[in-house]
Specification:
Layout lengths: L1 E6 L5 E5 L4 H11 L6 E4 L5 H12 L3 E5 L2 E5 L7 E2 L12 H10 L1 E5 L12 H9 L3 E5 L2 E5 L9 E3 L5 H11 L5 E5 L5 H12 L3 E3 L5 E5 L8 E3 L4 H13 L3 E5 L7 H10 L2 E4 L3 E5 L8 E3 L11 H8 L5 E5 L10 H6 L3 E5 L2 E5 L8 E3 L3 H13 L3 E5 L1 H5 L5 H7 L3 E6 L2 H6 L1
Parallel strand pairs: 2-15, 3-14, 6-7, 10-11, 18-19, 22-23
Antiparallel strand pairs: 1-23, 1-24, 3-5, 4-5, 7-9, 8-9, 11-13, 12-13, 15-17, 16-17, 19-21, 20-21
Helix pairs in contact: 1-2, 1-3, 1-6, 3-5, 4-5, 5-6, 7-9, 7-11, 9-11
The protein binds uridine-diphosphate-N-acetylglucosamine (UD1) and phosphoenolpyruvate.
Pfam families: EPSP_synthase
Subcellular location: Cytoplasm
EC number: 2.5.1.7
Length: about 425
């Protein structure tokens, strides 16, 4: 077990290359299983969620080669749709095995997923989608069994009551090889959904409208192997943008799609941060003179819930009162007590954090409760003049590739060390 030790107070300077998107990667890898040949996925981030997927695929009998930043997946040797438990609980996105195995074998038996604890994270819309496609779904002791009658799903019109990234992608996966046409209404529009549709279409699927709220999928009989490069991770990029601002630094982010970051750029500019957008890079120049603002998270293209926690840290440094409301996850506030431990003045009211900005943060020992809480605490540590110790790195490792070396390359004084005996006992 390890922790980060951050000697904060140094403005981040220089450039950082953004990795492939976590939330694309974890959908593209299971999608690749549907092909009748090898699929090569490039720009794949080395993060824990992808490593776990690598192990899951091998456990299921797929041929997988994971080298540098690419993976070759060949699902042909797989015989089984059984993946009841164990590793699937280590990540949220194992739910994509439902849609992928259902399309591949006409049946999936997979345990319920894990992922960040952000309050209730139901999967009713995924189930509603599979059932609309004709599947019979049962949940016995946490193992979902999803079966298509006679082994093949039938296209249907599905209205999602809530905009859900996971349900949209899962229905796309399942419907890609269904008989007939499937329409998803009120679909999520996140760039990661477009990325998955692009891979499936390159494999021979017929998906139109991804990136809008109406997706049309004409099922096909077979999908073939291909190569695909993952889009840049807009959440990792947003994290470095906020870190640059919080440390009054000057950072250029390479390998980004500025359009995917419009809501983040707009909010940073409103706070008073200088953000320059170029073709495939963004430069952020901090200045320490920040205004309070209100932020409300919403589905893409709105401000992402996955950056709600990091921007809260930045707003503790702005002058005046800010309100940050999470409209996606009502309980995504477990970073708040830890920020208070560091001297920030903020409280939770309902699904909002009410922030009295302008506090001088101090170094402290803090624990990351989830992935983006971890990012929020690392940013706080980088912005203080003291020493901050961050535990709970298993969460951060799920989604940030080479966090320590990337921060070090920007001049941060941060290192990763083993927990002492006493700290291990307290875990
Ligand atoms: C692996 C992955 O891509 N994770 C992302 C994905 O999670 P995930 O796909 O799990 O999130 P959803 O978009 O599905 O969730 C959106 C909202 O819908 C609710 N809901 C969702 C499904 C369902 O069946 N029933 C239901 O009520 C959720 O509780 C939440 O309030 O999108 C979230 C919202 O952008 C991000 O925070 C996560 O980083
Ligand atoms: C909530 C997140 O991830 P997951 O859905 O994989 O738990 C995230 O990436 O911030």
């Amino acid at each position: 077990m390890e922790k980060l030790i951050i000697n904060g107070g140094t403005p981040l300077q220089g450039s950082v290359t953004i990795s492939g998107a976590k939330n694309s990667a974890v959908a593209l890898v299971p999608a690749a299983l549907l092909a009748d040949g090898p699929v090569v996925i490039e720009n794949l981030p080395h993060i824990q969620d992808v490593e776990i997927y690598h192990e899951l695929l091998r456990e299921m009998g797929a041929d997988v080669l994971f080298e540098d930043d690419w993976m070759e997946v060949d699902g042909r040797p797989m015989k089984s749709m059984l993946m009841p438990n164990g590793r699937v609980k280590k990540l949220r996105a194992s739910y994509y095995l439902w849609g992928a195995l259902l399309a591949k074998f006409g049946e999936a038996r997979v345990g319920l997923p894990g992922g960040c604890d952000l309050g209730p994270r139901p999967v009713d819309l995924h189930i509603k989608g599979f059932e609309a496609l004709g599947a019979k779904v049962t949940n016995k002791n946490g193992v979902m069994t999803i079966q298509a009658p006679n082994g093949r799903l039938k296209g249907a019109r599905i209205y999602l009551d809530l905009v859900s990234v996971g349900a949209t992608i899962n229905i796309m996966l399942a419907a890609s090889k269904a008989e007939g046409v499937t329409i998803i209404e009120n679909a999520a529009r996140e760039p990661e959904i477009v990325d998955v549709a692009t891979l499936l279409n390159n494999m021979g699927a017929n998906i139109k409208g991804a990136g809008t709220d109406l997706i049309r999928i004409q099922g096909v009989d077979r999908l073939r192997g291909c190569r695909h490069t993952i889009i840049p991770d807009r959440i990792e990029a947003g994290t470095y943008m906020i870190a640059a601002a919080a440390t009054n630094g000057s950072v250029t982010l390479e390998n980004v799609i500025p359009k995917h970051l419009e809501s983040v750029t707009a909010k940073l500019r409103e706070i008073g941060v200088d953000v320059l957008e170029m073709d495939d890079c963004i430069q952020v120049n901090g200045n320490g003179q920040y205004r309070s603002i209100d932020v409300k998270t919403s589905p893409y293209p709105g401000f992402p819930t996955d950056l709600q926690q990091p921007i809260t840290t930045l707003l503790t440094l702005a002058s005046g009162s800010s309100i940050v409301t999470d409209n996606i996850y009502s309980a995504r506030f477990r970073h708040v007590d830890e920020l208070r431990r560091m001297g920030a003045n903020l409280k939770i009211e309902g699904r909002s954090a009410i922030i009295e900005g302008g506090s001088q943060l101090n170094g402290a020992k803090v624990v990351a409760s989830d992935l983006r809480a971890g990012a929020a605490l690392v940013i706080a540590g980088l912005a203080t003049n003291g020493v901050t110790e961050v535990e709970g790195l298993e969460h951060i490792d799920r989604g940030y590739e080479n966090l320590v070396s990337k921060l070090q390359s920007l001049g941060a004084n941060v290192r990763r060390v083993s927990l002492g005996e006493k700290e291990r006992q307290q875990q």
